[in-house]
Amino acid sequence: MKKTRTLLCIFVFSFFPIVCGIAEERAHMTVDMPGPAVSAPPGQSKKIVIAYPEIGSKVSADTFSMRTDATDNHEAIMRAIEYCRSNDVRRLDIPKGTYRFSMSNVITLYGFTNFRINAHGSTFIFTPTPVKKQYVQISACVRFALEDLALDWDWSVEPIASIVSVTAVDAGSRSVDLLFQDKHPSLGDDIVLTDLEPLHPERMTPDQRFFVILPGMGPKGFTEKKWVSPNVLRLTASPALAEFSRIRTNAVYRIRHYQYGGGGVRINDSSDLTISNVTVHGCMGFGFHVAGDVHHFRFNGCRVTVPPGSKRPISSAADHFHMTSAQGNFVIDGCEFAYGGDDIINIHTTAALITKILDPHTLEARVNGPTLIRTGDLIELRMPDYAPAGAMLTAVHTEYNEAGAVRSATIRFKDPLPAFAAVNGILFNRRYFTDNFIIRNNYFHDNRGRGILLEGSGGIIESNHFARHTGAALSVETVITSGWREGYGVTNIIVRNNKFEDCPFISYRTVTAAGTATPYHIFSDHLYESNTFVNLHPARLLFDIVSAQNIVIRGNSIEAVPIPGEDAMRSGIRLRFVSNVSIVQNHWKQPTIPAVVPMEKTGGIDILSNSHAR
User: Fold this and answer.
1) Among 39, 142, 270, 293, which residue is least crowded by beta carbons within 10 Å?
2) What is the mean pLDDT of residues 231-248?
3) What is the reported pTM?
């Protein structure tokens, strides 16, 4: 291929040192990291120190009548927790066993400093009730550890999801008959169908080859349901369901009965956290959920997956690990996340979209929730294409409004709005960021959705195994729409020594309020080095990059042999609104090197010393 231009100052990533101390008992964790792009130049190292709880007295939960034969241990464990709080006890031990809990109450851990819970390999089983809540809530804690615990949903009461096969499709009546495999006795006329997701017929996991999600009950999905035999449910499709024509007899689907309900472990407004060897085998929402003023934390050896040997169709009904509007400085190391109903890891910060200018100090904006912008927060105003404008204002009053699906906030600022402030301008709340992180040595596999949705900066993703995701293994995004707004751009990222297998690979995406990608380079300084890509999803690109600058793709191995009749761009690289790209020393194990296609406003491409199998 032809060399088109020489790149400058893009190889700075090579010199970042990464040193991690192994976290032994009562030890702190120190990580040398690239500094955050918003405050440190590339190449400047910044340490992340995650403090471990200090040593102190300890008690055992069985002292407070926690028992393996009890039907609900909530009162007992809360007595133990309150005793520890009131008496400055530093450690709560839970004797190994299986303990049952009702989902009508939450195990709440609030306001602890220097506190540790070690469950010694215990399992907590949560029984669904009419009101279903979070399993565990950690809030306002500092130097806190939760260790050696498994959390699970009681499948004997009701399922989170079911597996069905298509026995009949009638195009005339637009109906489909679904045979339930191992139908749970709790499923009746009030059965909830969130959606239907195609499964691989042998693995019985989401099928990335032909993945088209069918919506559940509703005007755009199925409008009628009827049991025509004890194990067969007939659905009638709305005329608006275009995907109906793609349903085939003998196809296998997973029906999710839940999606965004109570999850496994939620963490708010805490710091110096260690979550070690904690497993979520099943829940009706996120496996792990981090939100708010949370920073300096690590997940080590954690799992969100079905029990070994289980035939369950799902682990968490939504994302395995979900972080929104937090404060960064975290490590995810040695974990396994699999079989969930959405993304493996979703790390993002939500933004706001200006909809009205009310007076010289006040505007109205679409927001994702009531706590996105609070009094005293420092807000950056950006142009509609995400370009910075040098405007930072302090919010002095906020009022949240909700009308149906529309969520908005009236925000008054201490200083006057700049002259450029207008409808479709973008607000970044600089109270929050998802910067400074390492994600390494993990196994992510067999889920519906993406591997990592990346919307944070100053991070390293290394030595992970990504396999069989239905969405991109790594999706780099910043999106503003009338319905949802997230991402502040992504800068200073290293992706190295990973294996990507049987999935769509690397995708970039920007959306402005106009519904188009932005020519502004909201993404910059990304290195992809020494990764292995195996068996690319059919008819997919290796990289699809947009709105970016200073990208290095170097020394990677690609084993994506073209299939006859497929798009010639399979395992190729597409660039839109991109400048300064280096594609060097990569090896394609196929007869030719696929195309690199520069599209709109793309330049500065360096293609050197790549090779392919002869």
Assistant:
1) 39
2) 93
3) 0.91
